[in-house]
Every structure is written in C-alpha cells, then in structure tokens.
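Q&A log
Question type: sequence-to-structure
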Amino acid sequence: MHPPLRPLRQRALLIIGILLVCAVASLLFSGMTGSIRVALADVPNALRELAGGRAESLPASLLELRAGRALTAFVTGGALALAGVMMQALLRNPLADPYVLGISAGASVGALLALLLMATAATVDAAALAGAVAVSMLLYLLARRDLRSGLAAEGGASMLLLTGVILSSLCMALVTLMLSIAPEGRLRSMIFWMIGDLAGAPLRLTPWIVLAGSLVYALRSARAMNVVALHAEAASTLGIRVGALRKGLFFVSGLLTASAVTSAGSVGFVGLIIPHACRFAFGPDHRVLVPAAVLAGGAFLVLCDTLARTIIAPQQLPVGAITAVIGAPVFLYQLHRLRR
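Response status: OK
Response body:
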C-alpha cells in the first residue's frame, strides 16, 4: 500500500520551512558580520529603515552594503546546487557535479580571454556566458544521439560524461596557455576569477530569473526524475518521455552553471556535496530534494562567502578556496559513506 499523502506533504513542508528559516538566518548573519559588526538589537530598526527606502543609521548602511553580495552568493549557491541535482539525475550518479561536463571550463576560457584583452566587466560577463554556451552546444552535438535516444543505461551516461571530461581538459589547457602569457598586472584578477570570487559581484536580476525558471521546470519534472531513478530501463513504458527529460535536464543544468559562473567565477564543490548531503538527510524524492538543495546551497555559499571576507579581514579570500577547503573532506566522507 502507498503511504498516505498528508504525512508526506507535512514532512516536505516542514523540511522546506526549516531550510527557509536557515536561509534567511544565513543572510542576516552575513549582513551583521564584518569588520564592523551590527548588533542583533539594531537589526529590526535597520530593516525598517531599508524597507522605508532610506538608510540613515550606520547599521542600516552596513546591511544595505552587504546585502547585494549576500544575495548574489545565495542565488549562485542555489543555482549550483540545483544544477548538481539535475546532473546527478541525468547521469544517474549521486556524485556527479555540474562542472563535470566542462561548461564551467568553457566559461573560464571566455572570461579569461576577455580579461587578457583588457575588456570591460560587462564584456567579461558576456564572454563567460558565450564560452559556456559554446561548450554546451558542442557537447550536445557530440552526444546528441544519446540524448535523443533516451537511453537510461550506463553506456549513454558514461559517453556523455566522458565527452564532457575531454572538453573540460581541452578548455583547461587553453586556460593554462592564457595564464602563461598574461601580463603580471592582470594575472591576479584572472586567477581570482578562476578560483571563484564574489568581491565586487553586482546584484543582477537575470540569475534570479534563471534560477526561478529552472526551479519551476525541476519541480514539474520531479516525478519523472523519481521514475527514471527507480525504473530506468522501464521508464519509457511507464509513460515517461526519457529522451525529452534528459535533454531538458542537460540544457537547464547547463544554463544554471553558466549563470552561476558568470556571477561568481568557478566556485566548486557546491553542486557536488549539497545535493548529496540533502539526499542523505531528506531522502531521494526529487519533490523534496529540489527545493531543499536550492535553499541549502544558497545558505551554504552565503556562509562560505562570509567566512571568506572575515577570516583574515580586511584582506578577502576567494570564496572558491573556502568551498574547496570545506568541500573536499566532506566529499571524501560522503564517498566513504556511499561505499559502506
């Protein structure tokens, strides 16, 4: 017999509610933390000032100054985590990563080429997006037979994965070449962009639109992803359009990765450890896993960015270095748990 729907919905709402509170708390903590701290007692008055469209006091000014970076970190982390969920569903591998197909490496090639040519910041963002789109289209052309056929077997996923690894290696070779010929004056900014850095990242509407649209698509496809994960070989006989689902997951995860890389550079491990951790904590049901990963990924990157700008203040570290230091041991622990 199937379990009753009401307890399942109540559990899902409870999980999402708790994670939503944690996400808001992470944003408030980020706004309060810095070289000049904002006391918790001053937060309500500061928020009222910001809601009224003015920032007259010092706490309100500090919250307004830090809010843009915190919100950019949240949307970037949420996009990477959602891309990780989709990539793991696409490749049927719980340890897959949104960067595994080389889309991030393609964005790095475009951005570093623009930096090498001393382009403006807007041109760098456009070049990063163009590089990510170019690699996505090339990968689709090389693996379109597997995506169109709707193969859920390991062979189709392995071919897609192998093609992405080869393209990523090619892009990283181009990145190494550009770094080797770059003038010293531009080398630091290029390296920080590669590692992942949110310092000076503007708050833009486009990443939020991309994340919202991708979240709607993922929630609408959650039942189909559950069926493919449990009954991959028989999914098509159960009414699932496996080929269309795989192509949709591929394109949407690529778009999310490109949006995240354009906003913050190459931030690793978020799309790897957050979906896997949420799967361990809340189960494999994508109807819960998708929103949980978005909220957890956003809160995780906000906290990592807060640590990056305060651990050795006033000097700031690239947030990608913090996520790597935290993510590598967590990934090894998850891998050990998975083997057990």
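Response note: The two ends are 30 Å apart (CA to CA).
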